[in-house]
Amino acid sequence: MTHLSHTDHSPAPQDLEDPDSRLDLPAVRGALRALAADRGPVHDPVGRALSDLADGLVHHASLPSTQPLALADGTPWRAVSTDHQTAGRGRLGRGWENPPGSGIAVSVVLPLTGGVDAVDLALAASRTPRWGQVPLCVGAAVHEALAALGLPTGVKWPNDVLSRTSGRKLAGILCQVGEGGRSVVAGIGLNVWPTAGLSAEAAGRSASVCDELRAVHGPGWVPPADLREQVLTGVLHRLAVWHAAWLAEGVAPELADAEHGPLTDRLAAVSATLGQEVDLHLPGGELVRGTATGLAPSGGLLVEVAGEPGEGPREFQAADVVHLRPAT
Questions:
Q1: Which of 43, 104, 313, 314 could be a cystine partner for 190, CB 3.0 to 4.6 Å?
Q2: Where is this region: Disordered (predicted)?
Q3: How many structural domains compose the chain?
Q4: Which residues pair with 182 in a beta bridge?
Q5: Cα angle vertex 327, ends 212, 147, to 5°?
Q6: d(CA 168, CA 272)
Q7: Nearest Cα to 242, choosing from 138, 104, 146?
């Protein structure tokens, strides 16, 4: 995960010897328990997930990566976070930069069970879940958590969250299916505080929540000291909500939410990619140019390819694409 360099004096903790740079774990757990209590009935799947997250959140001062620990653990709603991820990796093995205390690095075990009979029946029938929807749902959770703070964002297919203020990257997502296909581990790297000392490439394409909120609210805006805790709580909360939606419709499509509409439509509504002219860089150096027109139920991207009039959109899966960039 990369971060935007800065020249202001925001409280961007860098030294893990400074207690202010450490995540306030009790505060996050307490906030999650309060949200669970607000859900009311114990049979509510989101409320149960929030309660399990409060119990299952573990935090480390430093780790090479949160993802292997969560994958090895596999406990439903285990969340592994760290103040400093020293060897983080994203999609296709790309590196993530995570200076100490500057952001959020967390991996969450999303279970493929939720006490929903139709879901359990679908899994028993060996129905293949729509895995490609998962990173989009995780991105939507980050989007909603930041929207609650007043920051407009969009989800770039297949696994990034961009600021709609600057167009720069705020978060990256890595999802991996757990052992036996009974869970998905969602890794999230999210820039909260601005940091200095990055490469020119990293600084040029990334942003922080703090900087983007200042752009929204004006230069006099003062970030709260617990901004990182607020963001993490919000992300975990919305992740529980989107997980419940995916668990139903992504595994058992007959459970589509009549009130909110099909999951694909809801994901399309938060997309920063649809309607854009894009270049898809494929393995082997092939370049495909076209207009991103929609999302497939699989989570794939539908593209009207230039030079193929009347052929209809082609569907691309994340595994088929090395890079997705604005057409130039």
A1: 104
A2: 1-22
A3: 2
A4: none
A5: 25
A6: 11
A7: 138
Is the full-model pTM beyond 0.85?
Answer: yes
> How many residues comprise the chain?
328
Grouped pLDDT means (10 residues each) for the chain, 328 residues: 34 44 92 94 84 96 94 95 82 62 93 61 60 95 98 97 95 91 92 73 82 95 96 98 85 54 90 97 93 95 87 91 92
Domain of residue 302, residue span? 273-323
In a domain, 42, yes or no: yes
